[in-house]
Amino acid sequence: MGAYVSSENCAAKYGTTVNCTVDLSKDNTTARYLGDVGLGEFPGDPDIADASSAWWSAKNIFGVVNRLTREEKALKNWQISIAGIIEALIVTCSDQQVFTGGAYAITLRYAKACSVSAYHYNIVANILLVTCATHLMAVTVARHYWQHPYLGVLRITVTTLVFVITGSLLSNQGSGSLGFPTQVPPITEQYSLMLLPAACFQTGDFMLDNEVKKAFKSGSAEAFFTGQIHGWTNYLIMFMFYIIAVCVSLGRVIRRGMGHNGKRKKFMAWLKRVVPFFFRIKRFFYAIFGLYLVAGIAISAWTVAIAAMIQRSNNRNPENDPSTFGQLVPLLLMSLTVFTFLQIISERINARNKRNKRLEYAALRHRRGSGHSRSDSRSPSPSSRTRYSTISVVGVGHDGTHVESDHQQLTVPWWASGS
């Protein structure tokens, strides 16, 4: 997304002439016109999400609600824990931002490809950076990311596409001979090329692979961390860590399969025979995993911290207009996280109450069955019987030797009780 856009392509493919002229004053200290924008006339763009956010948001709302319905039904055996609730909220935020990020990217590529300013282009690129940080956090910390395999594959596929789209948008900022303006100008600056259309600074070529090669061939750590593109270093580190996180999450799924009879247990048994040394130093791997969690959270937090670029004027942000369609839909969509939180709490409480009631009912059935039971020499000890030997509905006792019906007792062997 965002690739193949330039002033030439806008004129040839979309019939839109992009004005990239800079009309300076006589003393060259101020700009009278930057493209079609006069001095002091730069318009805000609170509707940057445009109409495409409607479709994506509607899809997100229904998709997340359906997902929560399926997942919460499957997770009723969870115990109430702060960690489980936080993980579920992080995954929900990640799911929301997949679709809102997609809406921004589609708008930037099609609806406003030739008209969006470099300033607003930077804003969308930074929003997508924060989105990638949320996805990385979800894959890193969520223990039940692969609770439903098909849903996990869908999440990973869409999230990977968002990472590629973000890289494409960021890499376009490195194209063109003018140099894409990505830094907020100082307050003393009289004009900034950031107010020109973003298409003026792009060549229309796909630059992602070139920028990746350029970053890794920089030759020094300083050059790697101080490139032309704002946030490019964060993106590369996040993307590499994201690949590692996906592999680690798959490894956790395989390891948890040791408690079930299946292919995962057989694979772990084979691995234990091949490399038994790794299983003797489990604490070392636990420590590495702890560092991995800390690193993932730190990278995500670092990206969010450097993504902000809008500076307030008189303690106000001129881009903030919640009444516009482009911002109102994402704001309302954020409230879905609150509903998710309340639903998770409710599901956990209901699950615990049902579990307690089942235990109380089982104890009551045990007491009633024991009161009517009669010992038998052929009856095995209670510890040797299964927990299914109690059929209190038809009057068979827990010690399982008789059936009561119309005040008559019919003696039956314990194995005939259905145990």
TrEMBL record:
<protein>
    <submittedName>
        <fullName>Uncharacterized protein</fullName>
    </submittedName>
</protein>
<keyword id="KW-1133">Transmembrane helix</keyword>
<dbReference type="InterPro" id="IPR053018">
    <property type="entry name" value="Elsinochrome_Biosynth-Asso"/>
</dbReference>
<feature type="region of interest" description="Disordered">
    <location>
        <begin position="366"/>
        <end position="388"/>
    </location>
</feature>
<feature type="transmembrane region" description="Helical">
    <location>
        <begin position="284"/>
        <end position="308"/>
    </location>
</feature>
<feature type="transmembrane region" description="Helical">
    <location>
        <begin position="235"/>
        <end position="254"/>
    </location>
</feature>
<feature type="transmembrane region" description="Helical">
    <location>
        <begin position="153"/>
        <end position="171"/>
    </location>
</feature>
<feature type="compositionally biased region" description="Low complexity">
    <location>
        <begin position="378"/>
        <end position="388"/>
    </location>
</feature>
<feature type="transmembrane region" description="Helical">
    <location>
        <begin position="119"/>
        <end position="141"/>
    </location>
</feature>
<keyword id="KW-0472">Membrane</keyword>
<keyword id="KW-0812">Transmembrane</keyword>
<feature type="transmembrane region" description="Helical">
    <location>
        <begin position="328"/>
        <end position="345"/>
    </location>
</feature>
